[in-house]
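hey so u asked for the seq, here:
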Amino acid sequence: MKDSHLINYNLFCSRTGFDIQHILKSLPNLSYEDFCSMLRKRKVCPPDVDYFIENKKKISPEEIKTTATKKIDDLEKIDKDTEDKLDTPTPAPKKKRRRRTRKKDDV
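ran it, C-alpha cells below
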C-alpha cells in the first residue's frame, strides 16, 4: 500500500493512545523494519528512523527488566486465576420470565 494512503503517525498516536516507548519496553529487540511493518499492517505511516532511535535510547535497561518481571508476575496470576475458575463449578443459568405482548382491543 502506498504511504500516501496511510494515516499520519501523530494522528494515530493521539487518537488511540499509542506510545512507542511502551512498545519498546515490552519488545526490547524490536527493529525499525519490524516496527514499520507492524504500523503498515494497521494502515499507519511509520515515523522516521531518527524518531525511532531517539525513543529507543531513552529507555534504560532497568526499565526493560522491570517490565519483563511484571509480565512474568502477570502470567503467574493469570495461571492461578484460571486454575481457580476450573475448580469452581459454574451455577446453572436462571430462567427469565417472558412477558406477553399486550393486545390492542378494537373499540
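The chain has one domain: 3-78. Residues 3-78 form one domain.
lmk if thats what u needed
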